[in-house]
Amino acid sequence: MITLFKNKGECCGCSACSQICPKNAISMITDEKGFLYPSISSDKCIECNACKTVCPIQNKFTYFDYSQKSFALKHLNAGERKSSSSGGAFIELAKSVINNNGSVYGAAFDKTFKVKHIRVTTLPELEQLKKSKYVQSDITGIYSQVKTDLNEGHPVLFSGTGCQVQGLKNYLKKPYDNLLCVDIVCHGVPSQKVFDDYLSMLENKYKSKIISVNFRGKAVKNKVQDMLIKFENGKTYSSIAALDSYYSFFIKNFDLRESCYSCQFSCPDRTGDISLADFWKIENQYPEFQDYKGISLLLINSEKGQHAFDTIKSNYDFIETPIELAMSQSPFKKPFDKPHKSDLFWNIYISKGYDACVKKLHFMPKLKYKIKRLLK
Q1: Is-contact 295 84, C-beta < 8 A?
Q2: What residues are paired with 131 via a beta bridge?
Q3: Cβ proximity of 319 and 325 under 8 Å
Q4: What is the phi-psi region of residue 173: left when phi exceeds 0, alpha when psi lies from -120 to 50, beta otherwise?
Q5: Euclidean distance between CA atoms 262 and 322, whole angstroms
Q6: DSSP assignment, residue 339?
């Protein structure tokens, strides 16, 4: 029987293998850490190797033959910008596709705060795709929906991490003029299980159900609020990244998927026609453009991406920046190193749970540091 990978570092969880299988012999199963991995049914597998041909890790991707351009931009509509994680770059790209009788695919929370890719076809539905979700999304079954839309002639925007975008392109096996791919520049992905346990910890602490989660709230003037969670009883939890356990583990790379530490998509060559990210530290070179309300980095990687940007740029205040400035950001350089405490995190988590990880590994910053961050 076919073996898809030798170790878990060789699987990014894109599920392209399970979706391409002609016999439905591959299921995505959650492991003890909460990550999805393919499992092959020996009774159904016919060893056609279709699964191996679509794997974005086993097959090197071909990048665009295009001179990349980078832009810093912020939405002219203050409301759209405030309701977005950074400068609101994604929303107008999505609107243009919807208004052209198309469909948009991206990550959204369901009612229980599970992160899943969904298909939207109306402007109100786009609200679900706004905002960052620092959890690996479940993309099971989505590629076939995208293919159906494309074959019916509808324009499609697909957004996802680099491996998810490449998984889709491998699954489709041919280019489509009516497909616009947007890759979200990725730090790495924690699991849904860890996120669920974090939310349960907060619900126990506040003795109420959570009704909204915002990883990048903008509740404080001129400051990006890192975590903002609201409860049924009217209480609110807010925290900067360094003080929040889930954010802290994520930023320190303790709880990322194993493949993230060797990610081939953490490089200047991109899988999407457009790449989107925050434009960190732009004030160092363009202080007059920074207003601390969120700035998007938009990287154009193809002619199709350029055309898409040309159709929406009137909605933005933007400047073209040197490509070297964009590429100076960490996710464009190389994957994040696996910290030595990652194994310790998972050992504690699997044996004792999330609360134990917080007690053992989440060290609260000193008072001097807290004051400095809050004043900044």
Answers
A1: no
A2: none
A3: no
A4: left
A5: 27
A6: P
Q: Mind listing the domains of the chain with CATH numbers?
A: 8-54 (3.30.70.20), 69-189+256-332 (3.40.640), 192-254+340-375 (no CATH)
Mean pLDDT score, 11-20: 96
What are the tens digits of pLDDT across the range 245-265? 999 999 999 999 999 999 999
The residues, ordered by sequence, that sit 6+ positions from 168 with a Cβ below 8 Å of its Cβ are 16, 143, 146, 158, 160, 181
Residue 223 pLDDT > 60: no
One-letter amino acid for residue 343 of the chain: D
Strand ranges for 205-270 from DSSP E: 210-214, 227-231, 236-239
H helices present in the chain, as ranges: 16-20, 50-54, 78-82, 89-98, 142-151, 162-172, 192-206, 245-251, 303-312, 323-327, 341-352, 354-361, 367-375
pLDDT of residue 222: 47
pTM of this structure: 0.93
Angle at 66 between CA 60 and CA 68, to 5 degrees: 100
What is the dihedral sign for C-alpha 86, 84, 198, 142? negative
- Least confident interval from 63-67, 341-345, 363-367: 363-367
